[in-house]
């Protein structure tokens, strides 16, 4: 598979003006993204996602390390390299506010040197694909946030670059527009074989759209794995255990210490322990806690898990995470 983006050992530190303190935003991050791949870049607030995206699209310079776009080194062939990439950054939609939807698309299509006929055809196609027909003659200024976001992404697609970076594309959008955008992004990735990097806190978006995910925490990559594999891995480790009687306070304490990622729902009728095991054999240690005070297990079931839970487990239990 062709590598479209190569990130090699990048580092970024900032100097806080007021305190003169050095903040390490990105620490030795490396990854490749291939043609047609949709990559989710995730992490808690302040993890280093935006800094990474800004370095890839040339808005920030790494302190060290290298970034190649389509094989071109950003440091040495900056303009040529950046021609292969377009970005929609959160809170920064590159649109002309006093032009209409159609005029914006025509303007950016014109910038690419297309003929009048080509411009009209491409603009019509995007207006149809993004369901912007009703709004085509409205000024961007008066559009809702969701409509502006759709237009910003349509403009990014116009450039027909190999790679598109989308920073929080669905943040603050209503359910309907968020759904529409997801469908469009899916089609673009599949049919046009574009490489897309999405940074998001919206886990259903990641689960649905991304082939692969990179989770960044405190400036470093903690996971680089196919979404499908992560879901499978965590699914096989997630158990729901129904007990015949409640756990004593000392058993609950042991559970907390030995299985920090577990939850105990005490109830007279049906006490349940939900646990995510690091290794399947750890279940024997769990049973020892029950056995020590004669607690009988009624049933054990595998629980289904969504990407939100996977993300939380990884970020919470980062030091314990290891692929099987
Ligand atoms: N211009 C800057 N000056 C000083 N510190 C900065 C600057 N930009 C980012 N940082 C710091 O670098 C770290 C990483 O920030 P970054 O914005 O890359 O994280 P993020 O993962 O995108 O977070 P969020 O999800 O909140 O947007 C944070 O500690 C942040 O405060």
Automatic annotation (TrEMBL):
<dbReference type="Pfam" id="PF00005">
    <property type="entry name" value="ABC_tran"/>
</dbReference>
<feature type="domain" description="ABC transporter">
    <location>
        <begin position="5"/>
        <end position="243"/>
    </location>
</feature>
<protein>
    <submittedName>
        <fullName>ABC-2 type transport system ATP-binding protein</fullName>
    </submittedName>
</protein>
<keyword id="KW-0067">ATP-binding</keyword>
<dbReference type="GO" id="GO:0005524">
    <property type="term" value="F:ATP binding"/>
</dbReference>
<comment type="similarity">
    <text>Belongs to the ABC transporter superfamily.</text>
</comment>
<dbReference type="InterPro" id="IPR050763">
    <property type="entry name" value="ABC_transporter_ATP-binding"/>
</dbReference>
<keyword id="KW-0547">Nucleotide-binding</keyword>
<dbReference type="InterPro" id="IPR027417">
    <property type="entry name" value="P-loop_NTPase"/>
</dbReference>
<dbReference type="InterPro" id="IPR003593">
    <property type="entry name" value="AAA+_ATPase"/>
</dbReference>
<dbReference type="GO" id="GO:0016887">
    <property type="term" value="F:ATP hydrolysis activity"/>
</dbReference>
<dbReference type="InterPro" id="IPR003439">
    <property type="entry name" value="ABC_transporter-like_ATP-bd"/>
</dbReference>
<keyword id="KW-0813">Transport</keyword>
